[in-house]
């Protein structure tokens, strides 16, 4: 029977709520009726909760006891395409439908009527008396360029009480307004001229534009060396999509990348796109969500969660830096935005562009197999050429104790600074030192909640756990033996590198780029813009600097520990080291000046290091693919990670053992189960963790078997079990 589009008042409807329930609930349609996909408010016990009309009610409940929905919310109904995407994504990731729906309804104030809430923005007056809390409020409002905040949001950003804000309102320094009705974004003009493209760029841009105009599903891997102008190429696909009257979405791996990108979009289309990420205010997030659904936002730039926005007519999804690990969500709903982008596009006849200089092996293999179209950009844009890459053999460097910059790298940096150019020291370690050791008892300072070392962050004067976020002031005495002043940092982090750089290059203006050193995404954006304009001579950074930034004056990249990612048992260790080193090296020489990348390594003969230096990427991917295929590992096989956690380690291990012994549904498919074993980090936030790995042949219908396997076991209420399809990390 065909599902009706409209349900008159009193009709039985099935409502999917965002609450952790295992089924769609029956309600009566509210007064005035409701459309299929409508966002509605329904009673659940004593509460009012958000839901979506998912279809007709099941009718397996006493009709007299079925409660009526309260009201239909002011929002465009969820389209069939998005409902299908949520269902398929839930099935693929083995996530409950309510949890998946929460990703699609994470919009503040959705249930509020217009003007119910007050918002606050910068006023025209100066307060009669300036205090530190008032300065903080005004600084936040200025930093966000006149955007509006809710009272709670502004108070949280500024670290003040609401009383401070109310006092500024009385003096006219802050304006209090009713929540404005969400307005459409300024229309973008796809007919404006683009930048002059090189021949290979023009060919790729035309191919993407033709695909975007086709109105059919397809995925293209846009592989271009760093600095080859991939952005300008896929913006032509965006233009073709907008010219068709359809919407476009560009996903970026790092919010700090958006500043430069938004400028380029504005230059190309005459206006800025909508933004969807944690760096925009709640008011702007609500506006973006509503306008996407109503068609008032043509083009959205966002983080991975933007995939779940209620697009009216999505025609193009671009996943920029598609290899980036930040596209995989590692908590809550475990999904890979790259894969989900392909799924959503297939449901709404849209095109996908996966752009990267160093694509993931999964995308490379799909292109090799003919599932994806592949377009290559082999040279840098304009006069820029690829950087020269060399290894510094640390075994032959005379390096004093407590130093990490080799004499060879030091002299190369000094030469660039003397020439008025920028240099970058790269170390993929946040903080000052990864280990704090007591010289009296030999104990390393560990987190009280995790099996992980506390990392010293000297700039913040705190020890931090990078697993659970636990933070404490740097102690003066050892927590184990209480010896005073015997704690010593071991190993370098970027903060320690900054200290060494300041001593080696006293006249250089230093800038440290690490995600934990900035209070907001906008502050980080501002720092990157300052560096790009020549506001620093020497940059010290973590992997944050490898993500697509363009520093025109940067001509030298020095990698402190190129071997760092080669240790451990991660099946993607070689791939990720190759990607990271090539990406960070690609920051050098992006203008007319030739760049150089120097890699400090104790293993210059290592196959991965040799591949990085040679630049023979196809040979590297071919060899890596052959190894994975031989081992039956992704993307040539299937894998799922199961993590069981409980406050009691024995309970977690017992459940893991029971699962391993009763793996009949998996064995029937020929799948192998490994474990249980303690997870590499066996305790996080006080919960003990046990891992199992499931490995199966490619094409195996693994999800149904996993659901049957886990569903047969009654789990204790304190226990948590998560299943990660195609895990990207194994901690």
Task: Describe the fold and architecture.
This protein has 731 residues and is of the alpha/beta class. The chain folds into six domains: 6-84, GIY-YIG endonuclease (3-Layer(aba) Sandwich), CATH 3.40.1440; 118-178, Arc Repressor Mutant, subunit A, CATH 1.10.10; 199-277 and 299-377, Rossmann fold, CATH 3.40.50.300; 383-429 and 493-633, 3-Layer(aba) Sandwich (Rossmann fold), CATH 3.40.50; 432-491, no CATH class; 637-725, Ribosomal protein S10 (Alpha-Beta Plaits, 2-Layer Sandwich), CATH 3.30.70.600. 30% of the residues lie in helices and 23% in strands. It contains 20 helices and 31 strands. The chain has a seven-stranded parallel sheet with strand order 12-13-11-14-15-10-16, with helices on both faces. It has a six-stranded parallel sheet with strand order 17-27-26-18-25-24, sandwiched between helices. A five-stranded antiparallel sheet has the order 3-2-6-5-7, covered by helices on one side. Helix 7 crosses helix 8 (258-269). It starts with 5 loop residues before the first strand and ends in a 6-residue tail after the last strand.
């Amino acid at each position: 029977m065909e599902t009706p589009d409209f349900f008159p008042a009193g009709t039985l409807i099935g409502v999917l709520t965002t609450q952790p329930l295992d089924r769609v609930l029956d309600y009566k349609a509210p007064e005035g009726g409701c459309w299929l996909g409508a966002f509605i408010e329904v009673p659940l016990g004593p509460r009012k909760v958000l839901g979506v009309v998912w279809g007709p009610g099941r009718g397996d409940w006493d009709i007299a006891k079925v409660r009526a929905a309260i009201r239909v919310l002011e929002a465009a109904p969820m389209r069939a395409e998005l409902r299908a995407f949520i269902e398929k994504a839930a099935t693929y990731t083995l996530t409950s439908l309510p949890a998946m729906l929460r990703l699609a309804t994470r919009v503040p104030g959705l249930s509020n009527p217009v003007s119910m809430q007050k918002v606050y923005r910068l006023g025209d007056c100066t307060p009669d008396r300036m205090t530190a809390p008032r300065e903080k409020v005004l600084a936040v409002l200025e930093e966000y360029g006149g955007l509006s905040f809710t009272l709670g949001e502004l108070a949280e950003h500024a670290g003040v009480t609401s009383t401070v804000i109310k006092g500024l309102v009385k003096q006219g320094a802050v304006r209090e307004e009713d929540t404005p009705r969400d307005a459409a974004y300024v229309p973008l003009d796809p007919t404006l001229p683009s930048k002059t493209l090189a021949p290979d760029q023009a060919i790729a841009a035309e191919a993407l534009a033709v695909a975007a105009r086709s109105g059919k599903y397809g995925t293209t891997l846009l592989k271009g060396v760093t600095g080859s102008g991939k952005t300008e190429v896929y913006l032509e696909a965006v233009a073709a999509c907008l010219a068709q009257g359809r919407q476009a979405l560009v996903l970026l791996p790092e919010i700090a990348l958006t500043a430069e990108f938004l400028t380029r979009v504005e230059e190309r289309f005459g206006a800025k796109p909508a933004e969807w990420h944690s760096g925009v205010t709640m008011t702007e997030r609500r506006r973006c969500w509503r306008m996407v659904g109503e068609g008032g936002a043509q083009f959205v730039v966002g983080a991975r969660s933007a995939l779940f926005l209620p697009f009216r007519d999505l025609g193009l999804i671009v996943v920029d830096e598609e290899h980036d690990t930040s596209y995989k969500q590692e908590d809550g709903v475990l999904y890979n935005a790259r894969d989900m982008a392909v799924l959503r596009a297939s449901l709404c006849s849209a095109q996908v562009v996966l752009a990267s200089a160093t694509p993931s092996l999964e995308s490379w293999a799909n292109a090799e197999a003919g599932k994806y179209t592949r377009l290559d950009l082999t040279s840098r844009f304009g006069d820029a050429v690829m950087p020269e890459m060399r290894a510094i053999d640390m075994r032959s460097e005379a390096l004093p104790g407590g130093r990490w910059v080799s004499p060879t790298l030091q002299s190369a940096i000094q030469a660039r600074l003397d020439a008025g150019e920028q240099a970058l020291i790269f170390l993929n370690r946040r903080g000052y030192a990864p280990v704090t050791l007591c010289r009296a008892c030999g104990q390393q300072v560990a987190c009280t909640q995790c099996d992980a070392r506390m990392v010293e962050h000297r700039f913040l004067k705190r020890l931090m756990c990078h697993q659970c976020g636990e933070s404490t002031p740097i102690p003066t005495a050892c927590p184990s033996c209480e010896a005073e002043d015997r704690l010593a940092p071991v190993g370098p982090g970027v903060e320690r590198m900054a200290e060494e750089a300041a001593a080696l290059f006293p006249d250089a203006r230093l800038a440290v780029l690490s995600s934990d050193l900035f209070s907001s995404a906008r502050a980080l954006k501002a720092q990157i813009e300052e560096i790009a304009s020549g506001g620093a001579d020497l940059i010290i950074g973590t992997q944050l600097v490898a993500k697509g930034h363009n520093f025109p004056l940067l001509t030298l990249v020095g990698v402190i520990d190129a071997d760092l990612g080669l240790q451990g048992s991660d099946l993607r260790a070689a791939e990720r080291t190759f990607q990271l080193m090539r990406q960070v090296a690609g920051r050098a020489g992006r203008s007319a000046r030739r760049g150089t990348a120097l890699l400090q390594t104790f293993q210059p003969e290592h196959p991965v290091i040799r591949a990085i230096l040679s630049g023979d990427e196809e040979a590297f991917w071919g060899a890596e693919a052959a190894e994975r295929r031989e081992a039956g590992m992704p993307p040539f096989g299937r894998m799922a990670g199961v993590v069981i956690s409980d406050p009691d380690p024995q309970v977690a291990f017992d459940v893991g053992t029971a699962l391993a012994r009763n793996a009949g549904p998996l064995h029937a498919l020929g799948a192998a189960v490994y474990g249980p074993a303690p997870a590499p980090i066996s305790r996080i936030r006080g919960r003990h963790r046990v891992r199992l790995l499931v490995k199966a042949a490619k094409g195996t219908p693994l999800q149904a078997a996993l659901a049957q396997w886990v569903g047969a076991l009654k789990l204790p209420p304190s226990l948590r079990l998560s299943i990660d399809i195609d895990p990207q990390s194994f901690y």
